[in-house]
Amino acid sequence: MKIIKEGWITRNKEIMTGKPWFKRTGITVELILKEVIGSAIFSNF
């Protein structure tokens, strides 16, 4: 959960500073997908 939270904080900071976080490499996309999947798994329990 800590990794997921830190990931969202980083993403939000990038949005606020205007950085194109969504135009980064596939690593960013993979991390976002893992966060979404992880959130779905945690919410099911």
Question: Can you summarize this structure?
Answer:
With 45 residues, this protein is mostly helical.
Report what the structure shows.
The chain is 78% helix and 0% strand. It has one domain. It has 45 residues and is mostly helical. The two termini are 14 Å apart.
User: For the report, how would you describe the main beta sheet?
Assistant: none
Mean pLDDT over the full residue set: 66
What level of helicity do the residues show?
A: over 70%
Encode the helix/strand succession as letters.
Answer: HH
Rg, Cα atoms, Å: 11 Å
**SSE-based structural type:** mainly alpha
Quick one: overall form?
Answer: globular
Strand composition percent: under 5%
Q: Are there runs of 5+ residues with pLDDT below 50, and where?
A: none
Q: How many helix segments? A: 2
As for the number of domains, it is 1
Oligomer: single chain
CA-CA gap between termini:
14 Å
Number of DSSP E strands: 0
Feature tags:
45 residues, mainly alpha
Topology:
Elements: H1 2-17, H2 26-44
